[in-house]
C-alpha cells in the first residue's frame, strides 16, 4: 500500500450534504448515492488492493445530466472521478474521499448500426461483448477483446485504450474508434471524429482514447465493426524453454505471418492452468505457445501448416493443430483461465503489464527469476508474444504482513526492467495509480510536463480524475499555459495566480 | 529557408523565434506547400535530419529521422519484405516526417489505418524550443497520453519531430486487383460496400468516374486465389468481376488514391460517410466536377474550375468534410484549406495547439486560427 492519493480537501468534505442536494436537483430519484453501506460496492475497481469509498456516487442517464453535473462541479471546484464498470486493473477508477464518482452504467443503449458503412454508434455503458452480440447476427464483430469483455464497457475501453489477445492483427481500441461525444469538465459537449475516416484538424480523438478519464467524460462512441473471419484455427506448441519459443515467434513474423493471436505461457502458468481446466497441456515443457490464425479457410489451412513447420524448425517438442472448434476452444481454455488458475495456487496474485522488445524476452525472464528469488515470491508468466506484452503474475499472500508491499516492490522492479530493455510500463492496463509513480522511469520531467499541458487544455483546474497517471500535479499556470503573444499578456486586468 | 543540421540547431532556431515573436513554417520536402493560405513565415526544412536510427524487422519497428526521403524508407522496408501499411505516398522529394505530419494514407487506409495508427513514438521540439519524447518504440503501449496520434496529421502546427518510430508490417506476397466496369455510381458503390463487408478480406476498394470499381485482394498465394474465386459469387447480385494485370491496375489505383490526373484547376479532398459518396458525386457531376473515389467511398477527390466553396457546402450537407488541397493563390487566400469545425471543438483544438506552441511560433496563417480560445 505504498501509493499515496492526494489529501482530501476538508472544505469539500464539509459541504457533502450541499453537494448531494445540488446533484439531486440535476439527477433526481435514485441517481445520487450517499448512504455509507450503498457506497461500499463502489470503493474499488479491478485493482482491489486499493479501496476508498467515494464522497458520493452520481448515476446520470442523459448527456444533459452529465454536462450539468460536470458544470456544477467545475463551478464549485469539486473533483470528479468517472467510472465505467470498474474493471480497471490499474486503479483508474479508484474513488477519492473528496470526489464525486460519476458512474456511466446507465448509458446502455446501442444507438445505431450501419452495416453498409460498417460502424456502430453506442452509449459508453454498453459492454465490449454486447457490441459484438448486437452485430454478429449479420456476420460482424467488434475486434478489440480485452479479457474482461463480458463486463468492461466501451466507455472504459476508450478511456484505457484497451487491447486484448487479437490486437497485433486488429489493433487496440484507438485503431477501432471513429468518433466520440465528449463532455469537458466545464460541462461543454464536443464531438470528436464521427462516422468517417480521418476527420479534419488535430487528432484530439487520438489523445482522448487512452487518456484514463482525465480529459473528459465520453457519452457516445462510434466504432468500426468488421466482417467476422470465415474461420479460425490454432496450433498448440510446446518448447523446452522460452528462448526457443521466442525464436519461433520471431520467425513466424519474419516470414510475413501476422497471427490473430500468439500467446506464450511459462512453466508455472502452464501447470496452474492445466491443474485448473485439464485441457491436455503438456507438462514437461518450459514454454507453451498458442498461435491462432483467422480468415478464409484456404488461408488458415496454409498458414497453420507453415507455423507448425516453423515451430518444429525451432525445436518444438509437441505440436498439435486444432482439428475442430472444440479443440481450438480447448487450447484457449487454459490460457483464458490462467489468471483464476493462478488464483487457485496462491492466496493472492498481482498482475503486471509491461511491454518489451520481443528479442529481449530470454534476458527479461532470466532476470525476473533472479528477482523472484530475491523477493522470495513466485511468478507465473503469460505473454502476448506477438506484440511483446508481458503479464507476470506475482504470487503472494495479503494476510502475511508486508507481503503486499513486497509484491508491489517486485512488480515495480519488473516494470523498471521492461523500460531498461527498451520497453514500456504498460501495454494495455493503463497507468492509473498503479504505475503513476514509475512514470519518471520512462519519461523525463519535460516529457511529462508536455503531457500535462495537454491535460490543462481540457481541464485547467485539474478536477477530473486527479491523482491518476501523473506523479506530480503541476498547476496549469506553472506550466506556462498562458498565451503571451509578442509579449502582451491577454486580459492584463485579470489577476493571475 | 533555414536548414538545421541537428536537434540542437533546431532548438536554437525555434527558441530564437519564440523570443523574437517570429513565425516559422516547418517542412520536409515542401512538396505539399501549396496546401493552405499564402503566408510569409520563414521555412524551416528538416531535410538534413535524415537517416535510419534503428530497424529491426522482427520487432516490426522502424525508427527514422524526419528528413529521410519517403522513397528511401519504402525501399528499405521492401527490401526486408515489409511495408508501411498505411501506404503513404508523395511527390518527388517527399520526406517521411512531412508525409506523417500531413497524415497521408493510401488506398489501404480503409482496412489498415492511417499514419496516426502507425506512428508509435517520437522525439520532437515544441514551440517553446523544448525537446520531448512521446510514445515508445514497441508496438503495444498505453503509457501516458498518446501524443504521437496528434502529431500525425498536425501539419507542423505543434512541434518539430526529430525522430519517428513507425510500425511496419509484412508485405503481402501476392496482390490481385479485380475490376468491374460499366456500373452506375450507385451500383458501383453497393458492390464496393458488399465486398468490404464480406469475409473475403478485401484490403482496398475504389471507384473511378465512368463506372469502374477496383477491389484489391492481397496476402499469401493460396488465400488470394481462394478469395478471388469466392468474390464473383459474393458479388453475384451486383456485377461480374475480372482480374486486371498489375501493370494495368497501378495507374488506376494511383488515380483513386491521389486524385492523380483529374482535370480541373481546383482540387478538393473530401472525407465522408461512404454511404453518401454516390449522392455527393451525382450532385457535383451536375456542376461539372471530375472525381475519383477511394476507401470504399470514404474519400472522394473532386476537381473543378469554379473557385467558390460550393463543393465544401455540398460535402458538409452530406456529413462530410472538404479540404481544399490545390487552388489558385487568390482562392487559397479567401477560402480556408481545412473544413471549418464546430466552435467548441475548434476552441479545444486551439488550446491543445497552444499546449505545444504557447507563443504561436508555428501559427503562420496557413490554417485558420481561433482568435481567443480561452473565452468559453
From TrEMBL, chain A:
<dbReference type="InterPro" id="IPR036318">
    <property type="entry name" value="FAD-bd_PCMH-like_sf"/>
</dbReference>
<keyword id="KW-0285">Flavoprotein</keyword>
<dbReference type="InterPro" id="IPR016171">
    <property type="entry name" value="Vanillyl_alc_oxidase_C-sub2"/>
</dbReference>
<dbReference type="Pfam" id="PF01565">
    <property type="entry name" value="FAD_binding_4"/>
</dbReference>
<protein>
    <submittedName>
        <fullName>Glycolate oxidase</fullName>
    </submittedName>
</protein>
<keyword id="KW-0560">Oxidoreductase</keyword>
<feature type="domain" description="FAD-binding PCMH-type">
    <location>
        <begin position="50"/>
        <end position="228"/>
    </location>
</feature>
<dbReference type="InterPro" id="IPR004113">
    <property type="entry name" value="FAD-bd_oxidored_4_C"/>
</dbReference>
<dbReference type="InterPro" id="IPR006094">
    <property type="entry name" value="Oxid_FAD_bind_N"/>
</dbReference>
<dbReference type="GO" id="GO:0016491">
    <property type="term" value="F:oxidoreductase activity"/>
</dbReference>
<dbReference type="InterPro" id="IPR051914">
    <property type="entry name" value="FAD-linked_OxidoTrans_Type4"/>
</dbReference>
<dbReference type="GO" id="GO:0071949">
    <property type="term" value="F:FAD binding"/>
</dbReference>
<dbReference type="Pfam" id="PF02913">
    <property type="entry name" value="FAD-oxidase_C"/>
</dbReference>
<keyword id="KW-0274">FAD</keyword>
<dbReference type="InterPro" id="IPR016167">
    <property type="entry name" value="FAD-bd_PCMH_sub1"/>
</dbReference>
<dbReference type="InterPro" id="IPR016166">
    <property type="entry name" value="FAD-bd_PCMH"/>
</dbReference>
<dbReference type="InterPro" id="IPR016169">
    <property type="entry name" value="FAD-bd_PCMH_sub2"/>
</dbReference>
<dbReference type="InterPro" id="IPR016164">
    <property type="entry name" value="FAD-linked_Oxase-like_C"/>
</dbReference>
Automatic annotation (TrEMBL), chain B:
<dbReference type="InterPro" id="IPR006094">
    <property type="entry name" value="Oxid_FAD_bind_N"/>
</dbReference>
<dbReference type="InterPro" id="IPR016166">
    <property type="entry name" value="FAD-bd_PCMH"/>
</dbReference>
<protein>
    <submittedName>
        <fullName>Glycolate oxidase FAD binding subunit</fullName>
    </submittedName>
</protein>
<dbReference type="Pfam" id="PF01565">
    <property type="entry name" value="FAD_binding_4"/>
</dbReference>
<dbReference type="GO" id="GO:0071949">
    <property type="term" value="F:FAD binding"/>
</dbReference>
<keyword id="KW-0285">Flavoprotein</keyword>
<dbReference type="InterPro" id="IPR016169">
    <property type="entry name" value="FAD-bd_PCMH_sub2"/>
</dbReference>
<keyword id="KW-0274">FAD</keyword>
<dbReference type="InterPro" id="IPR036318">
    <property type="entry name" value="FAD-bd_PCMH-like_sf"/>
</dbReference>
<feature type="domain" description="FAD-binding PCMH-type">
    <location>
        <begin position="1"/>
        <end position="171"/>
    </location>
</feature>
<dbReference type="InterPro" id="IPR016164">
    <property type="entry name" value="FAD-linked_Oxase-like_C"/>
</dbReference>
<dbReference type="GO" id="GO:0003824">
    <property type="term" value="F:catalytic activity"/>
</dbReference>
Amino acid at each position: 500500500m505504498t501509493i499515496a492519493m492526494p489529501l482530501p480537501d476538508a472544505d469539500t468534505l464539509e459541504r457533502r450534504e450541499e453537494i448531494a442536494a445540488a446533484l439531486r436537483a440535476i439527477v433526481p430519484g435514485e441517481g445520487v448515492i450517499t448512504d455509507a453501506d450503498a457506497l461500499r460496492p463502489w470503493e474499488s475497481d479491478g485493482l482491489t488492493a486499493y479501496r476508498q469509498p467515494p464522497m458520493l456516487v452520481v448515476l446520470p442517464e442523459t448527456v444533459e445530466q452529465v454536462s450539468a453535473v460536470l458544470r456544477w462541479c467545475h463551478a464549485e471546484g469539486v473533483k470528479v472521478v468517472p467510472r465505467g464498470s470498474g474493471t480497471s486493473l490499474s486503479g483508474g477508477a479508484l474513488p477519492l474521499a473528496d470526489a464525486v464518482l460519476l458512474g456511466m452504467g446507465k448509458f446502455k443503449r446501442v444507438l445505431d448500426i450501419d452495416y453498409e458503412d460498417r460502424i456502430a454508434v453506442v452509449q459508453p455503458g454498453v459492454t465490449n461483448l454486447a457490441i459484438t452480440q448486437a452485430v454478429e447476427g449479420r456476420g460482424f464483430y467488434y475486434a478489440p477483446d480485452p479479457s474482461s469483455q463480458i463486463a468492461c464497457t466501451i466507455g472504459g475501453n476508450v478511456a484505457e485504450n484497451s487491447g486484448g489477445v487479437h490486437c497485433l492483427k486488429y489493433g487496440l481500441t484507438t485503431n477501432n474508434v471513429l468518433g466520440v461525444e465528449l463532455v469537458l469538465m466545464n460541462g461543454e459537449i464536443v464531438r470528436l471524429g464521427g462516422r468517417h475516416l480521418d476527420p479534419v484538424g488535430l487528432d484530439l480523438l487520438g489523445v482522448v482514447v487512452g487518456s484514463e478519464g482525465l480529459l473528459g467524460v465520453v457519452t457516445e462512441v462510434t466504432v468500426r465493426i468488421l466482417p467476422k473471419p470465415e474461420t479460425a484455427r490454432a496450433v498448440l506448441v510446446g518448447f523446452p524453454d522460452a528462448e526457443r519459443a521466442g525464436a519461433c515467434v520471431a520467425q513466424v513474423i519474419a516470414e510475413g505471418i501476422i497471427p490473430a493471436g500468439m500467446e506464450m505461457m511459462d512453466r508455472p502458468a502452464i501447470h496452474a492452468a492445466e491443474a485448473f481446466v485439464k485441457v491436455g497441456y503438456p507438462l514437461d515443457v518450459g514454454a507453451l505457445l498458442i498461435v491462432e490464425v483467422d480468415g478464409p479457410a484456404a488461408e488458415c489451412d496454409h498458414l497453420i501448416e507453415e507455423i507448425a513447420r516453423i515451430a518444429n524448425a525451432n525445436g518444438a517438442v509437441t505440436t498439435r493443430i486444432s482439428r475442430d472448434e472444440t479443440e481450438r476452444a480447448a487450447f484457449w481454455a487454459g490460457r483464458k483461465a490462467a489468471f483464476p488458475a493462478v488464483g487457485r495456487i496462491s492466496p493472492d496474485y498481482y498482475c503486471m503489464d509491461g511491454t518489451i522488445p520481443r528479442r529481449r524476452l530470454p534476458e527479461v525472464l532470466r532476470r525476473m527469476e533472479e528477482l523472484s528469488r530475491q523477493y522470495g515470491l513466485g511468478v507465473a508468466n503469460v505473454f502476448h508474444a506477438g506484440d511483446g506484452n508481458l503479464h507476470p503474475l506475482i504470487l503472494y499472500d495479503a494476510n502475511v504482513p508486508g507481503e503486499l508491499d513486497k509484491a508491489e516492490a517486485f512488480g515495480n522492479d519488473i516494470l523498471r526492467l521492461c523500460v531498461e530493455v527498451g520497453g514500456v510500463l504498460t501495454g494495455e492496463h493503463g497507468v492509473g495509480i498503479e504505475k503513476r509513480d514509475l512514470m519518471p522511469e520512462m519519461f523525463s520531467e519535460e516529457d511529462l510536463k508536455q503531457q500535462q499541458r495537454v491535460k490543462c487544455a481540457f481541464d485547467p483546474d485539474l478536477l477530473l480524475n486527479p491523482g491518476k497517471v501523473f506523479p506530480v500535479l503541476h498547476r496549469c499556470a506553472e506550466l506556462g499555459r498562458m498565451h503571451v503573444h509578442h509579449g502582451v499578456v491577454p486580459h492584463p486586468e485579470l489577476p493571475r495566480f | 529557408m533555414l536548414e538545421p543540421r541537428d536537434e540542437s540547431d533546431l532548438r536554437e532556431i525555434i527558441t530564437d523565434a519564440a523570443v523574437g515573436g517570429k513565425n516559422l513554417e516547418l517542412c520536409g520536402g515542401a512538396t505539399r506547400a501549396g496546401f493552405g493560405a499564402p503566408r510569409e513565415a520563414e521555412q524551416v526544412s528538416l531535410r538534413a535530419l535524415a537517416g535510419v536510427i534503428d530497424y529491426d524487422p522482427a520487432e516490426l519497428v522502424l525508427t527514422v529521422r524526419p528528413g529521410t526521403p519517403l522513397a528511401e524508407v519504402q525501399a528499405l522496408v521492401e527490401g526486408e519484405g515489409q511495408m508501411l501499411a498505411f501506404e503513404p505516398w508523395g511527390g518527388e522529394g517527399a520526406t517521411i516526417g512531412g508525409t506523417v505530419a500531413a497524415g497521408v494514407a493510401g488506398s489501404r487506409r480503409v482496412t489498415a489505418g492511417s499514419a496516426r495508427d502507425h506512428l508509435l513514438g517520437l522525439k520532437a521540439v515544441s514551440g517553446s524550443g523544448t525537446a520531448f519524447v512521446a510514445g515508445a518504440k514497441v508496438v503495444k503501449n498505453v503509457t501516458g497520453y498518446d501524443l504521437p496520434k496528434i502529431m500525425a496529421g498536425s501539419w507542423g502546427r505543434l512541434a518539430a519531430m526529430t525522430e519517428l518510430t513507425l510500425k511496419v508490417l509484412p508485405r503481402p506476397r501476392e496482390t490481385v486487383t479485380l475490376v468491374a466496369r460499366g456500373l452506375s455510381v450507385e451500383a458501383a458503390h453497393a458492390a464496393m460496400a458488399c465486398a468490404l463487408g464480406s469475409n473475403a478480406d478485401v484490403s482496398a476498394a475504389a471507384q473511378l468516374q465512368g463506372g469502374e470499381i477496383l477491389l484489391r485482394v492481397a496476402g499469401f498465394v493460396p488465400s488470394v486465389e481462394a478469395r478471388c474465386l469466392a468474390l464473383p459469387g459474393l458479388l453475384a447480385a451486383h456485377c461480374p468481376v475480372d482480374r486486371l494485370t498489375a501493370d494495368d491496375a497501378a495507374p488506376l489505383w494511383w488515380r483513386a488514391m491521389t486524385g492523380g490526373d483529374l482535370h480541373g484547376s481546383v482540387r478538393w479532398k473530401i472525407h465522408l460517410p461512404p454511404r453518401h459518396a454516390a449522392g455527393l458525386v451525382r450532385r457535383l457531376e451536375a456542376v461539372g466536377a471530375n472525381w475519383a473515389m477511394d476507401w470504399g467511398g470514404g474519400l472522394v477527390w473532386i476537381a473543378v474550375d469554379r473557385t467558390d466553396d460550393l463543393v465544401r457546402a455540398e460535402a458538409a450537407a452530406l456529413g462530410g468534410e472538404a479540404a481544399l488541397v490545390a487552388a489558385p493563390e487568390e482562392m487559397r487566400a479567401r477560402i480556408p484549406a481545412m473544413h471549418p469545425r464546430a466552435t467548441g471543438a475548434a476552441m479545444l483544438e486551439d488550446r491543445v495547439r497552444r499546449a505545444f506552441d504557447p507563443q504561436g511560433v508555428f501559427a503562420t496563417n496557413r490554417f485558420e486560427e481561433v482568435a481567443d480560445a480561452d473565452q468559453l
